[in-house]
Write a structure and sequence with these properties.
The chain is α/β, with parallel strands linked by helices and 325 residues long. It is 46% helix and 19% strand. It folds into 2 domains: 31-126 and 250-319, Bordetella uptake gene, domain 1 (D-Maltodextrin-Binding Protein, domain 2, 3-Layer(aba) Sandwich); 127-242, D-Maltodextrin-Binding Protein, domain 2, CATH 3.40.190. It has helices at residues 3-27, 45-61, 76-83, 97-105, 141-150, 165-177, 189-198, 208-217, 263-277, 280-288, 298-319, and strands at 34-38, 65-69, 91-96, 117-132, 156-159, 182-185, 203-207, 221-225, 250-258, 292-293. Strands 1, 2, 3, 4, 5, 6, 7, 8, 9 and 10 form a 10-stranded mixed sheet that branches.
C-alpha cells in the first residue's frame, strides 16, 4: 500500500471508530438525570417555558429533567455553567434573545456564544405588541410615526431596562421609521406597563400576553405586533412589517447543549423537543398566548441565532448603547 493511501486508510478507520463510539454512547442516552439550566428566576416566562418543556422531556427521555434556575448577570452565570459542562447530553440550556444580544453589550464574556455550544432548536418565538396610551393621537403605526416626526422627542417610550429586548425593539423602530423618541428605562416591564397606563410614558413594546388584557380594558391601545406575519391567536392585529417590510423582533427561547455533544444525542433531543411542541400542554399553550412553537432543524436554528447576533449588534452600535467597558 502506498504511504499516502495508508495514511488515508488510517484516517478513515479513526473517523469510523469515533463515529461508532458516539453512536454507542447515544444508544445508552440518557443514563442519569438531566440538568436543565434555566438562567432566569423562578416564576418568569423563561422559567415557565423551561418547566413545560422539561416535564415533557422527562416523559420522553425516561430520566428526570431537573430545572436548575441560575439567574443573574444577564443570563451569563447559567450560560457559563453550561459551556463548561461535560458534552454528554446531560446538561441542557434554555437561551433567549439575550444570548444573541450579550456579545454586543459585554466585551469579555466567559464563553463564546457560538463555538462553546451546539444548537438543538428553537422552542418558541413570541412577538411584542406596540402599545400607546389612549391620549396618543395614533391608531396605527403610520399615524404614530407621523406624530413622532412632527414632534421629535415629544413621545417617551419605556423599556424593561437599557439593552433589554424591549429597548432594542424600540430602537429598531426608530431606525426603520427614522423617528426620535425619548427612552425611559425601568427595572422590569411591569413598572413600565404601569406608567404607560398612567400616562407617564406614551409608548411601550411589551409581551402580547401581558398587554392584551389592558388593550381589552381600554387602558392602552394596541397598534401592531412585531412578528413578520400575524399571530394565529391575534389575526386582527396588524404587524409592523406591513408598514415597514422586514421589520421583525421577538422574545424567543431556544435549546442549546455544550459544544462537542455527539450528533446522535442532539438529534434525539431535537426529535423529543419537536414531539413536546406538538402537545396541547406545550405547543397549544404557546399558540394561545400569541407565540409560534419552534422545532426547526438545528442548522436552521443556528443560522437564525447568528443572524440575530448580527442584527442586534447593528442596532446597539447605531444607538450607542453601552453597558460594559
Amino acid at each position: 500500500m502506498r504511504p499516502e493511501n495508508k495514511l488515508m486508510w488510517h484516517a478513515a478507520v479513526a473517523i469510523a471508530l469515533v463515529s461508532a463510539s458516539g453512536w454507542t454512547f447515544a444508544q445508552s442516552y440518557p443514563h442519569k438525570p438531566i440538568r436543565f439550566i434555566v438562567p432566569y428566576g423562578v416564576g418568569g416566562p423563561g422559567d415557565t417555558i423551561g418547566r413545560l418543556l422539561g416535564k415533557q422531556l422527562t416523559e420522553s427521555l425516561g430520566q428526570p429533567v431537573v430545572i436548575d434556575n441560575r439567574s443573574g448577570a444577564t443570563t451569563i452565570i447559567g450560560t457559563e455553567l453550561t459551556a463548561k459542562a461535560p458534552p454528554d447530553g446531560h446538561t441542557l440550556l434554555l437561551i433567549s434573545t439575550t444570548h444573541a444580544v450579550n456579545p454586543s453589550l459585554f466585551q469579555n464574556l466567559p464563553y463564546d456564544p457560538i463555538k462553546d455550544f451546539a444548537p438543538v432548536t428553537m422552542v418558541v418565538s413570541t412577538p411584542f405588541m406596540l402599545a400607546v396610551h389612549p391620549s396618543v393621537a395614533a391608531n396605527s403605526v403610520t399615524e404614530l410615526v407621523a406624530l413622532a416626526r412632527s414632534n421629535p422627542r415629544l413621545l417617551n417610550y419605556g423599556s424593561s431596562g437599557t439593552g433589554s429586548s424591549i429597548h432594542l425593539t424600540s430602537e429598531l423602530l426608530k431606525t426603520a421609521a427614522k423617528i426620535e423618541m425619548t427612552h425611559v428605562p425601568y427595572k422590569g416591564s411591569g413598572p413600565a406597563a404601569i406608567d404607560l397606563m398612567g400616562g407617564q410614558i406614551q409608548v411601550l413594546f411589551s409581551s402580547t400576553v401581558s398587554t392584551l388584557p389592558h388593550v381589552k380594558s381600554g387602558k392602552v391601545r394596541g397598534l401592531a405586533i412585531t412578528s413578520l406575519k400575524r399571530a394565529q391567536a391575534l389575526p386582527e392585529v396588524p404587524t409592523i412589517a406591513e408598514s415597514y417590510p422586514g421589520f421583525e423582533s421577538s422574545s424567543w427561547f431556544g435549546l442549546l447543549v455544550p459544544a462537542k455533544t455527539p450528533k446522535p444525542i442532539v438529534e434525539r433531543l431535537l426529535a423529543d423537543t419537536r414531539a413536546a411542541l406538538k402537545t396541547r400542554e406545550v405547543g397549544q399553550s404557546f399558540i394561545s398566548q400569541g407565540g409560534e412553537p419552534g422545532g426547526q432543524p438545528s442548522a436552521e436554528f443556528s443560522a437564525y441565532f447568528q443572524s440575530e447576533i448580527k442584527k442586534w449588534s447593528g442596532v446597539i452600535k447605531a444607538a450607542g448603547i453601552k453597558l460594559d467597558k
